[in-house]
Amino acid sequence: MKNAARTAVALALLVGATHALPSALAAQQNFDNVQIRAHQVAGSVYYLEGQGGNIGLSVGEDGVVMIDDQFAPLTDRILAAIRELNDGEIRFLINTHVHGDHTGGNENLGRMGILILARDEVRVRLAASERPDEALPVLTFSDEITIHLNGEEVRTIPVPPAHTDGDSYIYFATSDVLHMGDVFRTNGFPYMDLANGGSLQGTIDALAIGIGMAGPNTRIVPGHGGVSTREDVMEFRDMILDVVARMRPLVAQGRTYEQIAAANLTAAYADRGWGDPERFLRGVYQELGGGM
Predict the structure, then answer these.
(1) Which CATH superfamily is domain 2-229 in?
(2) Which residue from 203, 183, 204, 194 is spatially nearest to 286, judged by alpha carbons?
(3) What is the largest CA-CA distance in the chain?
């Protein structure tokens, strides 16, 4: 059991470190054929699909509010896609969390003089990864703040440590669109990045906040994947609760991670197209005290 715990910790540290360093991620990928595609979500809100996390946009007479920026090699293409929608100034860039597939373009945009906002924890972790000053948030927050632009209330909402310890939701109140960052995704199982302060209970609590904020017509932009509904987030949250309920007694019985993995606790969700559940299961196992 000690070996299983060490493996889980090592995996969390390795994956967390890789996600936090955009240069390491970018060096491993070929961006030559990446296309940036714009999708209207509702009202003045769009999202850009490319390679990395979904980029949220509020566009209008006052310019652009941008959420996340994918990888540095894509910045020029991202800016070109934004100009197709709006040729105004990018007034603010908001980071939903620290990972490099959401913050890799920070340095490029920061050097352009664009104001970067994020939670205090995001700045601390970016600075610790030796990112240059231009890549760091200039404005940080620990409580909810609101930006008033384009006839839109853009609310930045800190949530409990979930995917990381610096997660924020961004809610476009007028258009009724909620960007949930990587707390919610539609193309994979949840990932609690324990090395960057994520947690199982925080993920459950943060998803509950999103569910409570959303109404029947709210359009939800996940960190990765397609536009979703409140019901989709509820199903995602309920899947986590189901797996936790199934795993908890096995951990209490002293089962190793390998034994629990063999029990195939995610079999009921195999048709979702979410890929390999190992990272999720290892995170749950560790959070429930497996191997301790």
Answers:
(1) Ribonuclease Z/Hydroxyacylglutathione hydrolase-like (3.60.15.10)
(2) 194
(3) 60
Question: Which amino acid is residue 143, in one-letter code?
Answer: D
Q: For the chain, what is the radius of gyration of the CA atoms?
A: 19
pLDDT over 50 at 151, yes or no: yes
DSSP secondary structure letter of residue 252:
H
How far the first Cα of the chain sits from its last, in Å, is: 7
Do 47 and 41 touch, CB atoms closer than 8 A? yes
Contact present, 95 and 118 (Cβ < 8 Å): yes
pTM assigned to the model: 0.91
pLDDT band of 30, cuts 50, 70, 90: confident
Instruction: Order the strands of the 152-158 sheet from edge to edge.
Output: 145-149, 152-158, 168-172, 177-179, 219-221
Token pair of 208, please? 């509950």
C-beta separation of 196 from 164 below 8 A: yes
SS3 148: strand
Going by their DSSP bridges, the two strands 139-141 and 145-149 should be labelled as unpaired
Q: How many whole angstroms separate alpha carbon 143 and alpha carbon 6? A: 35
Q: The dihedral of CA 29, 15, 272, 54: what is its sign? A: negative
Question: What stretch of H or E contains 48?
Answer: strand 45-49
Which residues, listed in sequence order, are joined to residue 119 by a DSSP beta bridge? 141
DSSP category for residue 232 = H
Let me know: does 12 contact 283? Beta carbons within 8 Å.
yes
| Contact between residue 58 and residue 154 where contact means Cβ atoms under 8 Å apart | yes
Within 10 Å of residue 174's Cβ, how many Cβ atoms? 15
Average pLDDT (194-216) is 98
Backbone torsions φ then ψ of 231, nearest 5 degrees: -65, -35
Smallest Cα–Cα separation from 255: which of 223, 288, 221? 288
Distance separating alpha carbons of residues 88 and 169, to the nearest angstrom: 24
Residue 213 tokens, joined: 């904020």
